[in-house]
């Protein structure tokens, strides 16, 4: 039987480190003892990626299309603190990340200890232990960098999305 939670690593991402068969995104922080903290971000790399228009997964510059992976609560603000991704990096993340893929039904219940160079999500305290939100892929041809909750964020408030695709949105069953 094949474990679908560990997808094959695309050649595009072969330059990145792996843990447990999963690619470590470029913005993922590493602790002083060498562990990667999935679900957290290295603040310097996050800001670098946002400002220089680099992908948050592979760390390479964007071309003409990019994807913002956003929770339902991000859509109303039209911004996210996560850097945009190349379409191929977004496809891998949608399959590999247990939260984005919908394999986790709640957010982490205990906070992580972070170094000064690491940043929790702006609303991580409010999400702690809460049910997971639906995720969406917002396709764009660009974005502007704004400040949201004291952090830099990618915003599409000044442009119309090319498309918005649900990743884990489930309509309630009609009885």
UniProtKB/TrEMBL annotation:
It comes from Prauserella endophytica. This is TniQ protein.
């Amino acid at each position: 039987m094949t474990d679908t939670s560990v997808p094959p690593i695309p050649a595009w991402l072969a330059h990145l480190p792996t843990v447990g068969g999963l690619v470590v995104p470029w913005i993922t922080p590493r602790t002083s003892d060498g562990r990667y903290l999935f679900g957290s971000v290295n603040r310097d790399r996050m800001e670098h990626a946002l400002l220089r228009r680099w992908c948050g997964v592979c760390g390479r510059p964007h071309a003409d299309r990019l994807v913002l992976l956003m929770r339902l609560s991000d859509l109303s603000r039209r911004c996210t603190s996560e850097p945009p991704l190349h379409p191929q990096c977004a496809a891998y993340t949608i399959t590999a990340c247990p939260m984005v893929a919908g394999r986790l039904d709640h957010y982490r219940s205990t906070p992580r200890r972070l170094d000064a160079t690491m940043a929790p999500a702006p609303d991580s305290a409010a999400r702690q232990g809460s049910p997971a939100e639906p995720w969406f892929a917002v396709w764009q041809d660009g974005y502007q960098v704004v400040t949201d909750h004291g952090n830099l964020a990618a915003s599409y408030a000044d442009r119309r999305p090319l498309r918005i695709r649900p990743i884990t949105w489930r309509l309630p069953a009609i009885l």
